[in-house]
Specification:
By secondary structure, this protein is an all-alpha fold. It has one domain. The chain is built from three helices and no strands. It starts with 12 loop residues before the first helix and ends with a helix.
Length: 66
């Protein structure tokens, strides 16, 4: 009788753990730039969506390799 193959983890813990800090760091940088009046946050908030999307893409790619 053959043992069942191990089930892959649905989301790699490392990439999942890095998504929140990456988004919060980006938010902090954007708000600091807004506070220093060098860049208006109203124009730069889409950067948060880009960072979140990149993290999700990296999470997906690393899950497929696992």
């Amino acid at each position: 009788m053959n043992p069942a193959p191990p089930t892959p983890t649905p989301n790699p813990p490392l990439m999942r753990a890095l998504t929140g800090p990456a988004v919060l760091t980006t938010l902090g940088v954007l708000l600091t730039l807004d506070y220093l009046e060098s860049i208006n946050f109203g124009r730069t908030w889409p950067v948060l969506l880009i960072v979140f999307g990149l993290c999700k893409m990296l999470e997906f790619v690393s899950a497929r390799r696992a």
